[in-house]
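Example 3.2
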Amino acid sequence: MAVPNWLARALARAKVVTVQVLTYDAATTYFLTRNGKSVSTIAAGSVNATATALTAAWNAATAPEFAAITATSATDTVTLTGDTAGVPFTVTSSKSGGAGTIGAATTTIAATGPNHWDDANNWDTGVVPANGDTANVNLDLGSVLYGTNQSGVTLANLNIFSAGFTQNTIGLPKINPAGYTEDEERFLKIGATNCKIDCGSSLVNLNFGSVQNATDCRRIGQSFTGAPALDLQGTNINNTFDNSEGSVGLAYYDGETYVASATRCGPAGSMVGGTGADVATIESLGNTIWSGPLGDFICAGGVSDIRGAQTTGTIEGQPGGRVILRFSGTVDEMTVGCPFDASPDRSPRTSTNTTIEAGGDIYDPNQTITYANKIERGLMVTRLTAA
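Structure, written as tokens:
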């Protein structure tokens, strides 16, 4: 199979969308909508006047989604042109009331440019990566921002790298720099059997869909927004993930999903599992916040902050680690081999089976933990103390 290399060299072209007012009715309200926000007009007098009024309403709108696009009109048609070449946008048209009609928003010129994955000119092979390929993305050459819905493709390997820190990214942030919630696709959606990440980017968004994936994150940067630099999604229960260095989110935002058999966070890494993260075995030697369902959670170092509403799962703390308990509900077992701190949160919680190991300590000044069964002592425990 081919080995396409990212070049980020395609010429930028602005997107153009046209909307035709088909029939006029004074009782009809005509709408143009972007990102859930609309401009409208009613009783303009004719199809031509309606197109003119819609154009004026669009250009007068103060929402940043509208400010990035310039509207013009000719006879019965509104033409919307992106102000920045290469940046796509999505607009819809609609009407309510009366017998008037308006045509669908139609793309007459598609946006493209050096940040579009789906432009063949951005790849040294002259072809967009296809099934079985190994795609190499050097982010030092440029960002991958658009044309990223490649969910019908499964790569053999996806390699993402940079020489050092880079401002270039894969995907889009949750909040557009103009100040609105991003309405374009934010993730590179593509299947990849293997993925290796070794870059200093502050934003890489990957969604592997249902394809079984093994991701080895050797290095990722730090975000400037407070969100993790790497956000992963995928739904295959056999996925695996290893984070050696940098900040990572697994299904970080609400509504996202990441499922896996095993994940590991190394001592130089940090990891956040959102409510949609469901992993059978989690091993953390760095700093981890976990809000998803618990499988087997092993804190082997660093600080592990366990949150969410739990119904099952185990928590094992090993020497060198520290576990903060903020979850509500029940876990099957807690093995306490390092400090367990329940003081930051007063949620009621139950540990069905609890074992104290050497070096273990439970700090629960608010008595939030109910022990369903008696606390067992590990073989190396010779003394228990109580405050």
